[in-house]
Amino acid sequence: LRQNLKREEKLFSKDVCGYPLSIFFIVVNEFCERFSYYGMRAVLVLYFKYFLQWDEDLATSIYHTFVALCYLTPILGAIVADSWLGKFKTIVYLSIVYTIGQVAMAVSAVHDITDSNRDGTPDNMTFHVALSMVGLFLIALGTGGIKPCVAAFGGDQFSEHQDKQRRTFFSVFYLCINGGSLLSTIITPILRGQECGIYSQQKCYSLAFGVPAALMVVALVVFIVGSGMYYKAEPEGNIMLDVCKCIGFAINNRYRHRSNQYPRRQHWMDWAEEKYDKLLIAQIKMVLKVLFLYIPLPMFWTLFDQKGSRWTLQATTMNGYFGKLVIQPDQMQIFNPILILTLVPIMDSVIYPLIKKCGFNFTPLKRMTVGMFLAAMAFVCAALVQVEIDKTLPVFPSASQSQLKLLNMGSSAVTVNLPGNESLTLNAAQASDKYFTFETERIIVSVGSPGMTQAIFLKRKSRQTLLIPSVISDEWLLVSDNEFKDTFVNGMNMPVNVTTSAVDLGLIEPFYYSTYSTIKNGETKFSLLSGSQSCEYIKDFGFGGSYTFFIPSTFCQDSITVVEDIEPNSVHMALQIPQYFFITAGEVMFSVTGLEFSYSQAPSNMKAVLQAGWLFTVAIGNFIVLIVAEIAKLPNKWAEYILFASLLVLVCIIFSTMAYFYTYIDPSEIEDQFSKKVDEDEDDKDKREKAEIKMVRRDSAESYDDSYKQSNM
After folding, report:
1. How far apart are alpha carbons 240 and 608 in whole angstroms?
2. Where are the transmembrane segments (predicted)?
3. Which among 191, 669, 684, 699 is placed 20 to 30 Å from 660, CA to CA?
4. pLDDT tens per residue across span 105-117
5. What pTM value is reported for the model?
């Protein structure tokens, strides 16, 4: 009572428009934190692939491991808050950990730290990998640890008579989550697309991680500033620990009484009756009934969370021009929050009432089943898109193969003979139309007539270009082609300097080539300077293209020869919209309905247990991505999409069967009946005690009369 009075006094003293002033700090904190988390996560898989130079499988694996940790740590955060530190201190301490992790990620993306030769590529990749892994672990610990605390802490700020204001707060709170997610998914990919650096200009992952880190600092400062206005409830113990102890005791007690001489009980949880209250046991039975239905659910999250990994990587091979608007691959994720904000009111106001009017009983479990099926259809759409992409992608060499392209740097045509191929005539300042594939590392190349023959040693699993000099007897240069990067080849007998507004390719020596550089998509103007001569060259770069530019000996008199090593992406990103629609519609029907169903089927004091179980299914789903991708080892991505879709359809059938046999309950009625039974048992006990007292009194009176008579006799 004293604690409630203290709470009322603190809350009433600082109200604004009927709302506690403290909640405004909590709402701002949540918006900044969600912006920080989703902004960092939006560009994470591309950071793995292009900055740390991991392959797609490793990038996907680490991404899903991180997401899984983010959904495992909330259980730890809830236990720490409820049993030890309290919600306020847990949020503050773990937010500090969270902020340190975000700063570590921003620092790990600064390529100049270890770029000693200033070529734009870190020389000590181990430093960047180690720092980023530490940062991700701290972020997972922080964001997961505060996840169950912030919303509950906000709810604590309202008094008992402020139910309406509390409901409005939760609506605004979840609006901030979606708002932060939407804005960060738009902004951070734009920041990543910029070019920055001290010595060399590269994609600005440090800025893309730095802004979320700054927002996390703001979130922490804002939350601490409101410290004096908060109502801070003392830790009262965590229900999850009580549930685990009760279940553990029941299992242990059942094992100790496993022989046939002990009578069987109706439910295995009844073996906890020797130590725990029957009401608690009945509540746990209701929760276990719901948790049993959770067993197939991780497969949905296996597919759903791949929109941040596989689908983003898929978008990197697509064309992002929407008219004059350019969409970055990691910005395609914005369709998810946009469609959520659109589909939730449509489903609640139009679709569900319409289905009900048609006389169909569209129960929550049926909605969840349909949601899982829609997610599977989303991956079928992704597979169809991947088939179209594969038609346009170049065929790269396998681990046992090498590929070679030829470039004639001379001013006259030459004839080239390659093993296993017909004679090829290359015109002056021209390249071969395609790459030639070889199974051996050493090949014999003959150039000219009469021919000059040389042995060329190729590098396995890579593409290379052979630069044929104007004087055949001069040195032949073999250049390793860098995927998705561009280079200039100087065909003059004097140095030339090539620069753009963003990249300085430096001075290129005669009959040599520049370092490889990433050029931003769109129109780019190159300035070429050689001695007293200068000219400009303009090229419009598409998504995903890779080019070699050959500067002829006549310099600006003739146009520069453009060799297209990899064609720009031609499949449009708009083809991903259907799969985002299906996955989001599935999320609305599965996730929103699933939480609503779970909360309606469990006692009020067991909501935290169900939330922990729900988050645990998300974590397991992300681990399944690693297991399936590792076991399957499918060479084609479209086949992997079909595999995941098939697995979810199979799980969907299993879940629908489980749902068919499920009986809906009303936990409040069961608790009321149980309470009445307990009250009746207590009344019967009182009556028995009173009856026993009367019997004792009567017996004592009779014995007194007998003794009196005996004494008189």
Report:
1. 7
2. 35-52, 58-79, 91-113, 125-146, 167-187, 207-231, 286-304, 334-355, 367-387, 608-629, 641-662
3. 669
4. 999 999 888 888 7
5. 0.84
